[in-house]
Amino acid sequence: MTTITPPPATGSRANLLRRRHRREGVLQGFGLAAIAIAFLMLALLVGSLIVTGWQAFSQTHVTIDFAIDPAKVKADKPAAGNYRALVQAAMVAALPDVPAAQAKKLAAIVSNSAQFTLRDRVVANPGLIGQTVTLTVPASDPYDQLNKGLIDRATPAANRRLSDAEVAAFDTLAAAGRISTPFNWGLFTNADSRFPELAGLKGAVVGSFYALLTCFVLSFPMGIGAAIYLEEFAPQNRVSDFIEININNLAAVPSIVFGLLALAVFLNGFGLPRSAPFVGGLTLALMTLPTIIIATRAALKAVPPSIREAALGIGASTQQVVFHHVLPLAMPGILTGTILGLARALGEAAPLLLIGMNAFITAAPGSPFDPATALPTQILIWADSTERGFVSRTSAAVLVLLGFLLIMNALAIYLRARFERKW
User: In angstroms, how far is CA 77 from the centroid of its own chain?
Assistant: First the structure.
């Protein structure tokens, strides 16, 4: 066997090779620099969210002894008692060195929910009337910020949100061991509130769940059915080409257009309830449907033609080939595309704003037809609030949303790796 030896490189050819290698190195350098900048921007984004939002995952609490005075709470009507006066009296007792009139004003150290928490405890057990009940209740937002260092004690009192007397009273409670900072479970178990220390994401999480459930139930079977027909059964003519072009165009339409469509058709046309997760799910289904169709068709095309030919060769019908052989092999890709489409729908806010899912709702929805918010719209509501305490909660809500998106993307990767077949 003859070995062909390339001619030796002349000076011009060697220079040409060096320039080519240098250009390739420059191109690789640009690529690595682009990746590094992307990771840096991502790190800055996540880092800024963590720096601003980590404090929302803890909440300052105050432990107070409440004396249930029978003169203020009647045994026959415990729900109608003067619990605000009981909270003020408890603060007077907790701050013995502070004048009584001033101590009553310092009842604002605890959240406005303290009187309702105390009322619910007494209503559930009227035998507590005449006794002393020790409760741990959230501190109000200014004192929560003071405890977390967001209010600088060195700032002059005229420019500080809390006066010197209020700061001293809080320090007195802290010195007595009445101040604690546990994990803020209320961020996940409470619905929205006008008081930052009470505001939570439960209503938004449940609303997003109902909306995504409606979106999945509608878009998944319809998307798979449309993709199977277009890919396996539809004749190749102008009508099918027109449908394919429109599906591809709908996948690139801005989401706010789907919100306008939902406002005109679902709310004004069909009279469906405003702010309902069911309507949000219908809107998100319209937006997600083209993505699922495109992903399903791509997964069906990825199945080798030999699978179809072998099934047809042993006498299977076209329907049996598709549903018994092709569709099971394409299912990992279909599930991946579906989950990614739902992940995109989870982060959409514009279409939900137009159907009213940005209302102030103080309770989690009990069904898909009850008024609710969603995670993206809840973030916008808190971002527009003037209260300082909502700043950290906005970043915390973004972190929660990113966590859900990360879980959904990880699930898509797992399903593809778990069920994908090699051929």
Answer: 42
CA-based angle 317:321:326, to the nearest 5? 170
Element of type H or E holding 132: strand 132-138
Buried b / exposed e along 308-326 (16+ C-beta atoms within 10 A)? beebeeeeeeeeebbeebb
H/E element, 318? helix 318-321
* Mean per-residue pLDDT pooled into runs of 10, the chain (423 residues): 58 80 89 94 92 92 92 87 90 85 83 91 90 93 91 85 89 92 93 92 95 94 93 87 88 89 92 93 93 92 88 87 89 88 90 90 91 94 88 93 90 80 64
Are 61 and 180 within 8 A, CB to CB?
A: yes
- CA dist., res. 94 & res. 51, Å (int): 34
How far apart CA 294 and CA 227 sit, in angstroms, is 7
CA dist., res. 373 & res. 275, Å (int)? 7
The whole-model pTM stands at: 0.87
Domains of the chain, first to last:
56-184 (no CATH), 202-419 (1.10.3720.10)
In this structure, what are the phi and psi dihedrals at residue 5, rounded to the nearest 5 degrees?
-100, 125
Which strands sit side by side in the sheet containing 132-138, from one edge to the other? 132-138, 61-67, 179-180
